[in-house]
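Data availability (excerpt). All sequences and predicted token strings are deposited with the supplementary files. A representative entry, MerR family transcriptional regulator, is shown inline so that the format can be inspected without opening the archive.
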Amino acid sequence: MDKSPDAFRTISEVADDLDLPQHVLRFWETRFLQIKPMKRGGGRRYYRPEDVDLLKGIRHLLYDHGYTIKGVQKLLKTNGNKFVVAVGHGDLASVEALAAAQEATSPEPRVANPDDDQIVGRAKAPISRRFFNFVSGDEDTPEISIGKSSVGKEDRALLQEALYDLLECKRLLDQVR
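Structure token line:
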């Protein structure tokens, strides 16, 4: 029998739902102060539905978008829980609305710093595209010259996809270890 959507979840149920080990959820509690499951006698954790939604958003940013823990902490600090939850649900309209509201209330425009983990309000490009600052559909990106040969856009895109596949394989192997 399935639980009601409003029911509290145990750590094992949440871990199964997110396809994560339980120790990762406990670790995230130490890194993200916004994750506050209710604890009963004996330290047993019970996660509210909003806790689970936040965890889904954090997982999505860390594993699917390649953010660092520090980067997700910055997103939570600047944009709040609702933004991360919307990202986790894939609700792009809410993400864009929240980002626009953030920009509208900001006294000065945010300038991207190359040392930052992300531009606040926008998810990073997939890992392979970050390395070459490549964004698909960018028509005025010049060709890269290497010695006497040059790498065209099509070849560069193929190389980046191969790199992405290799990095994904590495991530999967690291999970198994």
